[in-house]
């Protein structure tokens, strides 16, 4: 059982490459663990488009907060899409960095195959508000944690994923 991270900018192709990766390496139909909460109509349209692109290749489970509990129940490989939206949800619902770190550490210790998708937001400018800065800081720290525990890490640019670990 191994852990893998696909990290890259928004619309870099990391999600599609992560999907293809887990489909190619799974013996059973993998689980697509969707973390996005429905916020508005435009986001709902994006979610619907993602669902259409997956078709019947995955069993989809939606869970915006308690990833460990859901992953614990899964019997096949899991694609967590995406950690960035999960961080957003956790902040919105009042969870702390310590809560998020604890949740991820428990997942990373499980004897399960998990592929994580995460936006690389550390190459931008420092945000102009405290909440956005907190999100960037947490995302950076958690990406380091995930990458340090993963067997493989892929960085994606322009649809090309390059293995960096």
TrEMBL record:
Q: Which SUPFAM superfamilies match?
A: P-loop containing nucleoside triphosphate hydrolases
List keywords of the entry alphabetically: ATP-binding, Cobalamin biosynthesis, GTP-binding, Kinase, Nucleotide-binding, Transferase
What would you give as a GO molecular function for this chain, any one? Answer: cobinamide phosphate guanylyltransferase activity
- Which transformation does this protein catalyse, written as a reaction? adenosylcob(III)inamide phosphate + GTP + H(+) = adenosylcob(III)inamide-GDP + diphosphate; adenosylcob(III)inamide + GTP = adenosylcob(III)inamide phosphate + GDP + H(+); adenosylcob(III)inamide + ATP = adenosylcob(III)inamide phosphate + ADP + H(+)
Q: What is its EC number?
A: 2.7.1.156, 2.7.7.62
| Active site residues according to the UniProt entry | 50 (gmp-histidine intermediate)
Which residues take part in binding GTP? 8-15, 51-54, 62, 81
Single GO BP term: cobalamin biosynthetic process
The lineage's top-level taxon is Bacteria
Q: What does this protein do?
A: Catalyzes ATP-dependent phosphorylation of adenosylcobinamide and addition of GMP to adenosylcobinamide phosphate.
The record's family statement is: Belongs to the CobU/CobP family.
What is this protein identified as?
Answer: Adenosylcobinamide kinase
